[in-house]
Amino acid sequence: MPRTVGLDVSRMSYSTLGELPRAHRWAGVSAVATALLFAGANSLWGFEQPDSGASAQEVVDFYGDLSGQIVAGGLLSLVSIALFVVFAGAFRSVLIEIEGDELFANIAIGGVLLTAAAGVGAESINLAAALRAEDGELTQQLALALFDISYVLGYNAAGIGIGLLALAIGAVALRSGALLPKWLAVVSIALGGALLTPLSQYVLGPAFLLLLALGVLLLRGSALTSASPSG
Prior knowledge:
mainly alpha; about 75% helix
């Protein structure tokens, strides 16, 4: 039988952020910061990124024309990944508090760490390609190799990790009635399933919108239960 955890409504009206339990506060702030910083960083160059299967010359032109934006965006993305790991540490405590055991908490943190590892790889490879392009040393063969590896890491590999996180969030939300509204919990599970497939390249953006929504809801006390410690 799923363990049902009732929300303590009397504790959900917080006048200041400091009144939230520390793990909830850190998880909420780091989730919002991760989503916003990652979106901002990728907006510097992501809209100009060639599609998978682009020609060698298209990829060389991409790195050459946008090298400065790619370097700046990559560095900001690495910071957002560090914030994502902070989120994992705090959110694990929140999930254990809700569930009473570590199963979904460990799945969630494993997903975050897998996403972070793939993300660091993807951003570092993109940075290397952009820096080579700035120096005029990026050949077509090298450009294609770096682009393809970065693309697979950034979408397919990272998608598996964030998919596991989305599935864990949705499952806990449906079981407990905490974290997310029921409709958004269902969306989280559907999104998590899609992220485990090649569809990840299309739904990775919405996954970070889910993270942003989760962060806002955490800061509004959505994960508070009658067993939640005070701040």
